[in-house]
Amino acid sequence: MSEKHVCRHLFTLLKLAEMGAHRRTAKISTDYLAGKLGTSQQTASRYLIELDNMGWIKRTMTPDGCLIHITDLGVKELKKLYSNLRFLMEAAYPPSITLEGTVFTGLGEGAYYISMEQYRKQFMEKLGFDPYPGTLNLKLTTDYDIKTRSELEAYPAVEIEGFKDENRTFGNVKCYPAIIENKVKGAIVSALRSHYDASIVEVIAPVPLRKHLKLKDGHKVKVEVLTLP
């Protein structure tokens, strides 16, 4: 079922609940419901048939009108909606924020750092995927995106611990799980290299993002960052 259909069904269910159908059997005409939904009577009737078929309501046709009662399954869906809305309103952080940046070719150092076994093992353990050796580099160009990126530093992050070898010290890396272009699960990585400023975002994923998403320099990319642990 598409998100559009789910929203339509939940909205109809909500309007039926406003008329008391979650507590008792209510007599509701399709004409009256149509007015509540802002649709035609025919459309309202179709929505009721769909809800009935899904088991969210019990619908009985009588000579006096349509008797409707929201079933236990329908009440469960309303409670789920209520729980999600309450979580959104009361959470200390927004569940996600979206950044948009322009693809550019970096210096190619991402592959070196991502491939280091001490980092790679932690990426696999803490992020749940083996990253492709390289980063997708995005340049944030709007004040909104740059400000949002700076705010991200205050949110909980997945911490990748630094290490030392015989030559140098490699610092900690902060990771923020993310969804790229609403298609690929990956993560934004912070502090892999210090010479990039706050307007640059580096993204890792289990696949080569440029190839997988058919990206070229100059393409705009949206990254939804999941901010809650």
Characteristics of this structure?
Arc Repressor Mutant, subunit A; Elongation Factor Tu (Ef-tu), domain 3; six-stranded antiparallel beta barrel; three-stranded antiparallel sheet; elongated; 2 domains; alpha+beta; 229 residues
What does this structure look like?
The protein folds into two domains: 3-90, Arc Repressor Mutant, subunit A (Orthogonal Bundle), CATH 1.10.10; 96-226, Beta Barrel (Elongation Factor Tu (Ef-tu), domain 3). The protein has 229 residues and is an alpha+beta fold. 38% of the residues lie in helices and 27% in strands. The strands form three sheets. The chain has a six-stranded antiparallel barrel with strand order 4-5-11-10-9-12. A three-stranded antiparallel beta sheet has the order 1-3-2. Strands 7-8 form a two-stranded antiparallel ribbon.
Provide the number of structural domains.
Answer: 2
Quickly give the CATH architecture of the largest domain: Beta Barrel
What is the makeup of the main sheet?
Answer: 6 strands, antiparallel, barrel
CATH class of the largest domain: Mainly Beta
Mean pLDDT equals: 90
- Strand residue content: 25-35%
Please outline what is shown here.
With 229 residues, the chain is of the alpha+beta class. It has helices at 3-18, 30-37, 41-54, 72-90, 110-114, 117-127, 143-152, 209-212; strands at residues 26-27, 57-62, 65-70, 96-104, 136-139, 158-160, 163-164, 169-170, 173-180, 184-190, 200-204, 220-226.
